[in-house]
Each structure stands twice: as C-alpha cells, then as structure tokens.
Amino acid sequence: MKTTKNYPKAFSHIGITVPDIQKAVEFYSEVMGWYTIMEPSLVKKEKDTAIGQMCIDVFGDDWETFEIAHLATSNGVGIELFSFPNGVKEAPEFNPFNTGLFHFCVQDPNIEELIEKIVSYGGKQRMPIREYYPEDKPFKMCYVEDPFGIVFEIYTHSYELTYSSGAYSK
Fold this sequence. Notes:
With 170 residues, the chain is of the alpha+beta class. Helices cover 21% and strands 28% of the residues. The chain has two domains: 10-88, 2,3-Dihydroxybiphenyl 1,2-Dioxygenase, domain 1, CATH 3.10.180; 91-169, 2,3-Dihydroxybiphenyl 1,2-Dioxygenase, domain 1, CATH 3.10.180.10. A hairpin with a 5-residue loop joins β3 (65-72) and β4. The termini are far apart.
C-alpha cells in the first residue's frame, strides 16, 4: 500500500550524441542561446577516477575515448553533448512509432525567428508552424531538426499553458 505522497521530479539534463562536438556546441550556444558550462573535453577510458569508472559502467569496455561538453538552458536544464570517434555519424532514422526517445521540446515566443536561425545554421524545418487554438489562443508549435538530424519541437508557450484545462476540447 502506498504510504507516501508522490511528487513531480525535476528534469535535470538530457544527453545527446552528436558527430562533431565543436559544431554542436556552436549550434546550441549560438542558435539556442544555451550557456556553455563545460567546454568540450576528452574523456579517456581508465579505472583510476570515479568519472573514468562511471563511464566504463555506462558505456562498457568497447571504447577508448570520447568528447563531452555541458551546456545549460535558461531554466537550468542541462544539455550533455557526447561525441564518440567510432560511432555512426549519420542521423538516426526518424521513427516516432518505435519505443524510445522521440523528441525534446524548447520554448521560444518568437518561433519564426528561431526556426529561421535553425535553418540558417544547417538545420531543417520539418513542418509548417501550426497553431493549437487558432480562434482562442496564440499557441504555436513546429518540429525542426538540428544540423545533425536530431528532431526537436518548439512551443511558443509553456507546457502547462498549452495543455491546461480544455486543451483539446471546447
């Protein structure tokens, strides 16, 4: 029997594997405005430090080095970028019907300007900008890709406002 009240956990960070860590840091800092809190660094496989052992625990033994960088959004969510020298460098196939991470979402009230900047840095706009409630609320959304083929979504308003009372009904 449940005896303690559950509470919503905070989102700490998301890890994204990219083919070129320098280009990814440039894109995410210049286009998204995310703060670089740790410049790209080389991690080597070793068991002498807690970080080295943790990476072996997570990635196994089939690696020697990788690059990592840490960024942060305006509300403190971390973006952990990884680049593995022996990894596949092509974008993953977009298949939202399969189990797994489908996308992440960012929020910007000037969706048109952000999409324009994403495209100018080599990303793609995957669909037209759509309005959730064209007659009632100015909420817009759009799916895009970064230059590496990673799909994400843009909202103009917060998640709570977008899906609050009566989100899909009148």
